[in-house]
Amino acid sequence: MESVDGEHAFKPLSNSPSGDAPPGSSCHAPIVIRDSTDDHVRDECGVFGVIGHEESAALTYLGLRALQHRGQEGAGIVCSDEGQLNMHRGTGLVDEVMKPHKLARLRGDLAIGHVRYSTFGTSELKNVQPLAVDYSRGSMALGHNGNLVNAKFLRERLEEDGAIFQSTTDSEVIIQLIARSKQERFLDCCIEALKQVIGAYSVLATNGDYIVAARDPQGMRPLWLGRLGDAYIVASETCGLDIINADWLREIEPGEVVCISRDGIESIKPFPKTTPRSCIFEFVYVARPDSHIFGKSVDEVRKQLGRNLAKVRPVEADVVMAVPDSSNPAALGYSHESGIPFDMGFIRNHYVGRTFIEPDQTIRDFGVRVKLNPARSAIEGKRIVLIDDSIVRGTTAKKIITMLHKCGAKEVHFRVSCPPIISPCHYGIDTPNSHELIAHQMTVEEMEEHFGVDSLAYQSIEGLVEATGIPHSNFCLACFNQEYPTLLPKDFDSGKTHRRVIDRSADSYDEDTSRRTFLERTALGTLIGLTASPSKKGS
Ligand code: SF4
Predict the structure, then answer these.
(1) Which residue range is the domain that position 393 belongs to?
(2) Which residue from 46, 203, 515, 525 could staple onto 530, CB 3.0 to 4.6 Å apart?
(3) Does the active-site annotation cover 189?
(4) How confident is the model at residue 124 (pLDDT cuts 50, 70, 90)?
(5) Pocket of ligand 1 (CB under 6 A)
């Protein structure tokens, strides 16, 4: 699966405040063009926290940069300056939000941060985390990775009881429950709140004095504890610890609540013990390959996925290619096992930020090429094994395979390093509904025809689990087998059915109008077929 972008801005179309207005645009506000054609599941969120270091905000900024792949819609840091919480949040990438002069105002030795992709609630500023509130006992802030499946039920109950919500995220339900707890200590209020929610959470909360870090009883999302000198660090993945040279201490265990203060850590296991059901899709796509999660190296698991695929789905070919970047390790594994050389079939433009989508087919096609360009000489006349880590709707895969054929590929054998995705995720990975999932709608034979490939083969569920070296029973595999590890309330939805206030104050322009105006006025619009060429228009 072509990986979700986000680390860099596509300069002419950037929403960076320092970016230029697009040529030909009458709108001086910079433009963000978003890629809703991307055929990926979306990453979810990442959390990062520091306690006991005077540069906590700067460290958190770096940690969030390392976790940027987990969410590109918004970022925020809340810092405690001797108990006074100071917050900066914004929509966009970490670098776009956390300008030096903003970071300079975040002082203190305790900070928690968050990068967000909205799987519940909208992508407005009010939903960007950490959420921070004042309440009867003082102030608190919270950042959450995962989705709660009973958030709608709890929210309705709280609203009936007079609660007022400021966001549409499920995470605010946890804040409300903490604020209403009658327990003495903030830590115990957090525990009482977490006992009421069902679903996936790796959560950081602070009252300004200490950090409470918790993983849901099934440990669906990762969460790591690290050490930097005297400071404690918490991060969704080890890549967040590595970037600041922190030592890895250990993963916070499923169902563990850790209270991290300047004096040390206190570990509590307040929930009934249950079998972990970690999200296996973290290994397939979500986590960074240089991270360790659930006790394993993500890179090693992905390479093993490729090896397994080569063993059970061999094919005679000249070259193995990956859909970069997330499929690279699996393609290397396939190459090592099969003895077929690996080559770069596509060059990914790393300077493309959040790219774009338009309903018009012409622009959709253009969108893929902005990010991936085929290396013609590596493709022409070759029998190719193309490795992708997953197929969601199949739209991107179809375009990539079409590019291979246009570049003269002799044969294309499509191999997918995870099993068919047949069901949506309710725990924090943004997958479309079943009717949009190509593997839910078509057989493998039908997909072969649809993609125009000589063969198509998926990883088996057994092969996927085997590659991790972790028992089958310890995983959630629901998007592959529809066996959800929690009850799903009958009226569970994504939180989008209610009318809610939309905060437009952070909008710098009318995205749709500005985009069309820009495209219609410029040669780019002509190039991609949105508008007629100037000469045709004149005739
Ligand atoms: S349904 Fe799939 S993506 Fe969601 S938690 Fe389970 S394995 Fe992960």
Answers:
(1) 297-474
(2) 525
(3) no
(4) confident
(5) 220, 279-281, 425, 427, 429, 476-479
Taking the C-alpha atoms of residue 178 and residue 126, their distance in angstroms, rounded to an integer, is 19
Confidence (pTM): 0.85
Q: What is the CATH number of the domain that holds 252?
A: 3.60.20.10
Residue 33 belongs to a domain: no
The percentage of residues in the chain with a pLDDT greater than 70, rounded to a whole number, is 78
Other beta carbons within 10 angstroms of residue 261's beta carbon come to 16
Distance (Å) from CA 279 to ligand 1 centroid: 5
How many Cα atoms sit within 13 Å of 11 on the Cβ side? Answer: 2
Residue minimizing CA distance to atom 4 of ligand 1? 425
Identify the domain boundary among 424, 439, 474.
474
511, part of any domain: no
Record the tokens describing residue 407, joined without a space. Answer: 């570049």
Q: Rounded to 5 degrees, what are φ and ψ at 85?
A: -85, 130
Mean pLDDT, range 36-61, rounded to an integer: 82
Question: What is the C-alpha end-to-end distance of the chain, expressed in Å?
Answer: 44
Q: How many angstroms separate the alpha carbon of residue 131 from the centre of ligand 1?
A: 25
Residue 455 has pLDDT above 90, yes or no: yes
Same domain, 253 and 379: no
Whose CA is closest to atom 2 on ligand 1? 479
Query: What are the tens digits of pLDDT across the range 373-421?
Result: 999 999 999 999 999 999 999 999 999 999 999 999 999 999 999 999 9
* Overall domain count for the chain: 2
For residue 532, being part of any structural domain is answered with: no
Task: Select from 148, 285, 465, 477 the residue to mutate for testing ligand 1; criterion: most ligand atoms less than 8 Å from CB.
Answer: 477
Bigger pLDDT: 529 or 462?
Answer: 462
CA of 430 to the centre of ligand 1 (A): 10
The token pair that represents 390 in the structure block: 């997953």
Ligand 1 atom closest to residue 475's alpha carbon, by position in its atom list: 7
Using the structure block, give the residue that is written with the tokens 């995220």.
169
CA–centroid distance, residue 137 to ligand 1 (Å): 37
**116 and 81: one domain?**
yes
Q: Which pLDDT tens digit goes with each residue over 127-163?
A: 999 999 999 999 999 999 999 999 999 999 999 999 9
pLDDT at 18: 32
